[in-house]
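Sample intake — PX domain-containing protein
Collected from: Cimex lectularius
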Amino acid sequence: MASCLLTHQKDWSIDIPRVEEKDGVTYYVINVRVGPVSWQVQHRYREFSALHATLVNDHGISKDILPPKKMINKNPNFIEKRRTDLENYLSSILSLLLLTLPKPLSYFLDFDKYDVIVILQKFMSNISNDSCYKLKPTDDYHFQLIQVHAISERLKLPCPPVNMVGFQHDFSVILDFCSNLHKVTISEVNSSVGSSNINKSMLYFELSSFKSLRKLVLNKIDPVNLIKAEDLRQKLEYITVIWCELKQICDILLCDTLHRSTITEANSWNKLVEADFSHNKIEIVDDSLKLLPNIESLSLSSNLIYQMPKIEGLDNLQRLYLSKNSISSFEGLNLKFSKLVFLDLSQNCIISLKGLECLCELQGINLGSNKIEHINELDHMTNLQKLEYIVLTGNPLSTVIDYRVKILEKFGERASKICLDNEQTTQQELDTVAVLHAIRFVKEGKSPKTSTFVSYAH
C-alpha cells in the first residue's frame, strides 16, 4: 500500500547513504521511509538551496541550518561532510514542519508520488484547475492505480486533526468529482511504483465513490487489486480489462468472492452490455460468463483460447470477437449462439467451417488468416440467409485461381449481396457467376429459369 505519514508520525526516517556523480554534477541519494514504505529521491545541492530559500521566506526556518554553499569542491572529505550535514538538515526540517508539511518540502521528498494524503492534495489541485474543472461527466478520466488506491485508503482514515495543517484538504471535492464521472480508465505500467518498494499488486482499491460510473477500463491492473465489485454489478454497462494477465474471467467478475467456482444469480452483472477481455492469458472460458445475462458484445481476442467457448445463458450476445487465439474448429458452437450477428475468428488455426450452419442470424464473419484450404468448406455457410460480409484473406484457399468467383458462386442468387474481403461484388463477377451456373445446370441436365440468370447479372 501507499505510505501514510498521517498515521506514521513517529515512524519515519530520512538518510542520505551515498552520493552519485552524473555529468560532473554531484547528486545526493535520499532514502525516505514512512512505516513499511520507502523510496529514493536524488537532488543536487542547488535544489537543496532553492528549497531552503522558500522555507526561510515562507515558513520561518532559520537561515543558518543549511550547510553553506562553496565554490566547486570535489574533495571526497568535503562531499562526505556535506552529505552528513544535508542528512541532518532534512531530518531537522521534517521534524520541525511535520504538522504543516509545506508543499515545497513534500514535493522535494516525493510525498506527492507515494503518500496517500499528499497524492490526494495534488489530485485535488489538478481537478480544480480551469481545464480539468470543465470536464464533462461523459468524458473519460484517466487515473493512475495509486490514485484510486489513495481514494480508497482515505475513506478509511479519520479527518486530520486541526493542528495538522499540512494534511488538511477538502476530501469532499474529490468525492464529488468522482461521483459524477461516467467513464473511468485506471492504468499502471510498472510492477513497482517509481523508486519505491510499493508493489502495484498491493495497491487495493474499490470504486464505491464513483456513483455514476457506466464504463470502466482496467489497463495493466492485476484483478486482485479490485477488492469490491458489489456497486459495479448494479450500474456498470461497459467493462474493458486488457493487458492484465487475466487467466480466468471469474477473477474479475467474482473478484470479491472467495469461492469463485460457485456461480449465483446474486453476483450477476445485469446491466453490462459490452465486455472486452482481450490481450490477456485466458485459455478456457469459464462458467462465470453466465453472470453477464444481457451482454451484447464480447471480446476475447488476443488470448490463449484453443477451443470455441461453450457459453450458456448469453441469450442477447450479438457480437463475438475471438481473433488472435489458437482455435482450430467450431466444435462446441451450437444454437446457444443463435443470435450472433457478427463473429471474428481471424488469425486462428481453423481448417474446417463445419458447425457454422447453426448461426442463422449471422450477418458478418471474419475468418482471415486461418488455415482453410478447400472452397467447399463454404458450403457450411451458404444457407445462412442473412450473411453478407465475409473475410477470407490470408487463407490458403484465397490463392486459388478465380477464388472470388468460386466463392460467390456458392451463394447462388445471393451473390450480389456478398461483400467478400471488404470488396463489393462487381458486375463482371456476377456475370461470370451466372455463366458458371448456366454451365452447371446444363451438365446436370436441368433447365434453369431465365429469371434466375437475370437475378445474378443484375
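Post-analysis note: The mean pLDDT is 90.
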